[in-house]
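One example given next:
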Amino acid sequence: MATYIGIDGGINGGITAINDNQNVIESIVMPVIDTPKGKVYDIIEIRDFISKYENGFFVLEEAHTLPKNGAKQNFRTGECFGIMKAIIECEGRPFEIVRAKVWQKEIFQGQKVVDTKQASILYCRQKFPNIDWRASERCKKDHDGKTDSACMSVYCFRINK
């Protein structure tokens, strides 16, 4: 049975895996480690997640700079993209890099979307009503990194099925 994994990069991103029946197998917030200098990506945990899915197809959101983000934030976005791409390639998994606008157009077909983060939360609540989209039990809000990655996993399923 194949698995379809969407990766929403960034410190506040997420990774979600679904199966051939489009059931969520696992959805996590981006693994990070708190250090005295701030959060850093937990490369070992990310690699462990990716290596579990030998029959996985991966979709990785393309990283690009945004003028509203500072140089530091843009660098961190690129760092995450590079880490994810390197791990997936080293694990020998098939993957596609996709622009956010491309997967959003496919997932939110026919909807007028103003806030894509809110749209992904609403989509996931409807498609996967039994999944808790919060980052942890203490959180009150759904985690848009997890829901974006879930939307990307559905996109991955559609392009690879």
Summary: The beta strands are 3-8, 14-19, 24-29, 32-35, 38-41, 56-61, 95-98. The first strand starts at residue 3 and ends at 8. The mean pLDDT is 94.
